[in-house]
Amino acid sequence: MPMIELLFIPGSLRQASSSRATVRALIKRVEDSATCVTADPGLLPHYNADILDDPAVKAFIDQVAHANGLVFVTPEYNYSVPGVLKNAIDWASRPAMKSVFKDKHCFVMSVSGGALGGVRAQGHLKYSLNGMLAKVFGCPEIVVPMANDKVENGFLTDERILTFAEEQLRAFMTALSESVPDIR
Ligand SMILES: Cc1cc2nc3c(=O)[nH]c(=O)nc-3n(C[C@H](O)[C@H](O)[C@H](O)COP(=O)(O)O)c2cc1C
After folding, report:
1. Tens digits of residue pLDDT in 30-77
2. Which among 55, 82, 104, 175 is least buried, having the fewest CB atoms inside 10 angstroms?
3. What sign does the CA torsion over 159, 165, 171, 177 have?
4. CB 45, CB 182: distance < 8 Å
5. Do the domain assignments include residue 150?
6. Is residue 184 part of a domain?
């Protein structure tokens, strides 16, 4: 029986990113139970409706379409979602209300260098996803405050937050497997 496919979408491009470190640590915890793929929003050009045949755009939209669930780990930039992540979302959001996001199951968490863990960006991201008719998983907000202090060798090290995030992510995966026939 095929496994659930999760597409992880980090909202930061930098090498030492705490978002990417969080994605890596989460994948390590759930890869026994799901096929985990990581998207790279940095490969996409700036959104331009005149660009109709960009291979990176097509590849990203195909990744979103193919995944059973999307896992966003976004940092907070100026109280909102980083432009690079919003750009990726905008690309995959067309045609409006009928895009690959329609009815797509989404799991959202956030990181930040500050004390609030990116909770404002997380709220903005959920609002945008709802606007595209995606299905945002309802769970307590998962935030990683002071995230840059918690990265070692490319992995988030905060066991308490990771355990909580894993619990919520596994609940998301269970909900996904119940909604997709013939999958585990
Ligand atoms: C342009 C910019 C804006 C930022 N704005 C915020 C902010 O509004 N709130 C916050 O908590 N941190 C803010 N930060 C700090 C980020 O949370 C921090 O750099 C974080 O590590 C970025 O995620 P990353 O580690 O995945 O790259 C900002 C950082 C940048 C570069």
Report:
1. 999 999 999 999 999 999 999 999 999 999 999 999 999 999 999 999
2. 55
3. negative
4. no
5. yes
6. no
Q: What's the structural domain count of the chain? A: 1
- Does residue 1 carry a pLDDT above 70? no
Cα(112) to centroid(ligand 1), Å: 6
DSSP state of 128: H
Share of the chain above pLDDT 90, in %: 95
What is the CB neighbour count within 10 angstroms for residue 58? 12
Domain extent at residue 31? 4-179
Query: Quick check: CB of 78 below 6 Å from ligand 1?
Result: yes
CATH of the domain at 85: 3.40.50.360
Residue 82 is assigned to a structural domain of this protein:
yes
CB of 144 shorter than 6 A to ligand 1:
no
Residue type, 139: C
Residue 52, judged by CB atoms within 10 A of its CB (0-12, 13-18, 19+), counts as exposed
CB 51, CB 45: distance < 8 Å: yes
